[in-house]
Amino acid sequence: MDNRAKAVIYYLFHSGFAVEYKDYLLIFDYYRMPDNAALDGLAEKELINKIVEAKHVFVFVSHSHYDHFNPKVFDWKRYNSSLTYILSSDVKDAFSQAEKEAACLYLSPGDFIEKNGILVRAYGSTDLGVSFLVETGDLSIFHAGDLNWWHWADESTEQELMEEEKKFKDEVKKIEGKKIDVMFFPVDPRLGEHYWLGGAYMLEKFRPALFVPMHFGENNYITERFADKMMHLGVPVLKIEHQGQRYEFALSSKNR
């Protein structure tokens, strides 16, 4: 019998994920998801049911870009009065006064909060907003937001590319030494042949127990390509096939 603690991860869309673990439901960067999902997946109505039933619901927004922040998330408060919003500080001006009345906690890089048994640390980004490290005691989750090695080779000078690399690596240094079990990180096909740079760097630095690609829109194929390319590192990489996809992650004794 397998008595290991398990987290259930649902792919919503793009950089959006829901994670169920013990009494927690953690929702990151909700943008959109289908009304109907595959048989083994999660649809919108099932997500609402999970919000209703969960003891502790946390909704995270890494920044205000439209593909990471949908004001619809503020409707969820009516389904669970204990729901907590943890938002990047730049989101403050991105929604109406009525929505501001919801229970929102705002973080800037370097800030942290503790609530209902979880610790949330905000780190920086190489774009707008923050990245999140969420610790629930024995499970640690890193969601990068738009933190990435943005190597736009066709649009940048050599000097600009060097500056982007330095900016990324300097930001990652602030996270070094932290245990990360599940890492959500951009693997963006718009970067062309350089799509893998940031992900590979993070895999080698942190060796998470599970790496979950994100920020690829409809281009699910890139997750299998990245997983195959990184196979030599021996770190599991989730291959994402469809919206709503469900994945069980079991914590081994060395993770706990």
Explained architecture:
- The protein is α/β, with parallel strands linked by helices.
- It has one domain (6-250): 4-Layer Sandwich (Metallo-beta-lactamase, Chain A), CATH 3.60.15.
- It is 19% helix and 27% strand.
- The chain contains five helices and 13 strands.
- The chain has helices at residues 44-53, 97-100, 158-173, 197-206, 221-229, and strands at residues 6-13, 16-21, 24-28, 56-61, 84-88, 104-107, 112-115, 118-123, 131-135, 140-143, 182-186, 210-214, 246-250.
- The strands form two sheets. The chain has a seven-stranded mixed sheet with strand order 6-5-4-3-2-1-13, with helices on one face.
- Strand 9 (131-135) and strand 10 (140-143) form a beta hairpin.
- The mean pLDDT is 91.
